[in-house]
Amino acid sequence: MTETALAVIVAHGAPSDPDPLDREVKELAQRVEALAGGLLILGATLSKSGSLETALKDTVPAPTTLIYPFFMSNGWFVSKELRRRVAATTDAHVRYLEPFGLDDRVPALCVLRARETVEEMGQHARSAVLVLAAHGSQKGPAAADAARAIQERIVLAGAFKEVRLGFVEEAPTIAEAAAGLGGVPAVCLPLFATTAGHVLGDIPEQLAEAGFQGKLMAPIGEDEEVPRVIATALLETHQSLMTAEQ
Fold first, then answer.
1. What value does the CA radius of gyration of the chain take, rounded to a whole number of Å?
2. Could you give the CA distance from residue 168 to residue 24 in angstroms, rounded to a whole number?
3. CA 168 to chain centre
4. DSSP β-ladder status, 129-134 and 162-167
5. What is each CA distance from 1 to 7, 236, 242, in whole angstroms?
6. Per residue in 188-210, pLDDT tens?
7. Which strands sit side by side in the sheet containing 129-134, from one edge to the other?
8. Which among 10, 12, 62, 80 has the fewest CB atoms less than 10 Å away?
9. 114-147 per-position pLDDT tens digit
10. Can you tell me the distance from the alpha carbon of 241 to that of 222, in angstroms, rounded to the nearest whole number?
11. Rounded to whole angstroms, how far apart are CA atoms 135 and 174?
């Protein structure tokens, strides 16, 4: 491989207002690049017209382009639309990494941050309920399956009294998952890569419908450790490619 390999971090973005999230993903790419020496890392969103195509075209040629889907699951946008648009733009050899939400490091990060949040409330995690708010989908099982996998790993960690999971687009809803807690200490962690419509609207609205009195956390994709998680995944993949060529 050449000394510089190209990686593109691709998020969905916000169709109704694409520019702010597109800028955020580009800024994320800069933070990841600072942790991943030797890799040229760019950011793009599917929602902003030309964002992905520009990232793939306006760069130095690389033997392999790494595509990192900054999504929570391997749903339609990742498995179909992203691949279609990449294939239509470049003839370069492309290696797709697993989406962010399928990274084995993510459940542990969820546990760490949720536990810290509970303790900041002056409570013990083992007496608290963690409500996970996920997207879900009526178009296929990938989104819900990915969220359930995270839930299962968090449950196995044994850090909380209970770990509930609710969805925006399928049952059980977030309101159903967050209902009936009364005065039990609780936090809600959105399993989303970025802050967009669902995080700003649907999640707080459903929590209010449930009478949820706990704390709503920032999406896990905006955690300060996320650039390191992504950098590690990219470096591991890059190293495996280099080893395979030797």
1. 19
2. 23
3. 16
4. parallel
5. 13, 15, 7
6. 999 999 887 678 789 999 999 99
7. 162-167, 129-134, 186-190, 215-216
8. 80
9. 999 999 999 999 999 999 999 998 888 999 999 9
10. 29
11. 10
Measured in residues, the chain has a length of: 246
pTM: 0.94
Chain centroid to CA 150: 12
Helix, strand or coil, per DSSP, at residue 213:
coil
Amino acid at 108: A
Residues 6+ apart with CB under 8 A from 207: 131, 174, 175, 178, 188, 216
Answer whether the bond into residue 172 is a cis peptide, omega within 30°.
yes
157, two tokens: 């960690």
Contact 192, 198 (CB under 8 A): yes
Report residue 233 as tokens. Answer: 């995944």
